[in-house]
Amino acid sequence: LHDTPMRFVIFCLATLLALPAPAQGTLTGHVRDPAGFGIASAEVRIAVGPPGAAPTAQPGTPPGSPGTPPATITDAHGAFRILGVPAGTVTVSARRIGFRPGSHGVTVTDGQTVDVTVALAFTALQLEPVMVSARREPFDARLAGFQLRSQKRIGTFMNRERIEASASSTFSDLLRSVPGVRMGASTTGIRNSLRFRGSNCAPLVFIDGFPASADEFDVDIIDLASVEGIEIYMGMLTVPAEFNAPRGLEHCGVIAVWSRPYRPSPRPAKTVSPAELQRMVESAAVYTVDDVDTPARIVQDSFSPVYPDSLWKTRTGGQVTVEFVVDSNGLVEMPFFSVVSASHVEFGESVREALARARFAPAMRRGQRVRQLVQLPIRFSRPAA
User: Fold this and answer.
1) The pLDDT of residue 67
2) What predicted TM-score, i.e. pTM, was given to this entire model?
3) Which ranges in 259-323 belong to alpha helices (H)?
4) Residues with Cβ < 8 Å from 142, sequence gap 6 or more?
5) Of 189, 176, 178, 182, nearest to 215 (Cα)?
6) What is the structure's pLDDT at 362?
7) DSSP label at 344?
8) What are phi and psi of 44, to 5 degrees?
9) Among 89, 94, 185, 224, whose Cα sits 20 to 30 Å from the Cα of 165?
């Protein structure tokens, strides 16, 4: 008799183990925007049955909450993966701020992986698209003189584009292509010592307007990746007054090197998740374009993304859509910034840096300035010529 309860427990366990495991499969796929690019941070859920079936969870319920079906959030490329999906016909639904919800029916087979794509259409959160079709010249007070002198064409000038086109690995390799430049070992141990035609002494090297050395200078210690421009003057008569040095050291010629401008890349210490942003919109802490009387708009000439060097060089075009909040003073709240979709990561990074310095006319609601959530599409296109 004492063994009866234990035997009953063993019997129940054996019965459960004998039952067949529920049929399940795996869903993988992407959530894409109208242009076909992946949408980041989209919420993906499944419901048993064809499209139009009753939802199995309330909208806005965080994925993974007790009692909710399998769900996930897409990654930076719009991709997702859901395990343990019941076999049979299921509906995959996706939603994200700034897009109309979308769904797609699919049949899941036991033990198999099924791929599905859910396309979402934009809502009215977007600003008018911005077109970037020119490589903005970097500006720095140090470079103003370089650009002015290069127009006079007294001397030899190399800008960033010419430096990249040379495919040179070192500074001395780059200078070998300049007529009148000679290379040779010096008595000071410099392997590639520079001399100009008709001169037996070393040219004076300036870096960002200051003499680098009054003696022989090893130019190969300069990293070409950090150089924006180079000016070369081979004779004393052509050297501009800006590069005159004490004791006439410029009489052997001058090489002026200008470093690339520093482009700040501010990153917020804290970023706001899409779920938190959704709650802020629902609680009216942040408004959408449909909820304001006058939407936020870019102040002219305050937003100027730089066409990424690598994509400009290969004439690669593309587009990116970003999401952010404009505060009541017209400034972008960078913790809310995120890339919604992008053809290339570099475009999103360029836009992020430009938005950190941009200015907006803030949104107005009932006569008051308010915070607004906006999405901004930017298209990058380099002309063929």
Assistant:
1) 47
2) 0.60
3) 274-282, 309-313
4) 208, 209, 258, 259, 261
5) 189
6) 93
7) S
8) -120, 130
9) 185
